[in-house]
Design brief:
mainly alpha; 64% helix; elongated
Amino acid sequence: MPDGDEADKWSRRPRPDGTSSRTTILRAACEEISEHGYGGSTIRGIAHRAAVNTSLVHYYFGSRDGVLTAALREAGRLLASAADGAAPDGGSLAGEELLRRGLRLWEPEERRSAALALIRSSVTHADAGQHLADVLRRVFPDPAGPCPHTVMISAQLIGLMVVRHITLVEPVASADRDELIALLAPVARHILADHGPRPAGPVQPSVGIPSQPSSDRLGEAP
């Protein structure tokens, strides 16, 4: 490979698969954040994943914050685009269908790192939180606007992604997706059961939650 300026020119050329070095770096940065969080991500780690020199990361993004911010923005764009492309054909989705829709959009390998990058970073970075909120509005569309019911389903999805892919708590981490849906569906159905007119004042907590048959085995539907 050429040295100096020639090396930079070579590394900025489109790759054989048609992706540019900039796109490759953004993907690598997203994977770095998904595994190490915003605070633990480094330019050296990103460059290693992208198989480029650290100088090329600086060339495109200027700084560590520059590349990480761009990666989070791209993660939000990717997930929002996927959600828009899989929007339901009218009508309201049931609780089980909402959970299945969310996992189907977030768990495939090509989008999982984007979802985890936003989830990890939203705790400490407002921009990431805004991107995540926008994605959730698209994953769980509500014609009348955001409501407590779909927000609670969103919270379930985020928690499930954390347990399955960040903290790796068993048996949830290795459970089949259908098993998880069967386990969580009764909770989601209850959350949406009183989905009626929006309250004029503050949302009051629900009382008398119906009991559900318990099961000691993951995936055994109640």
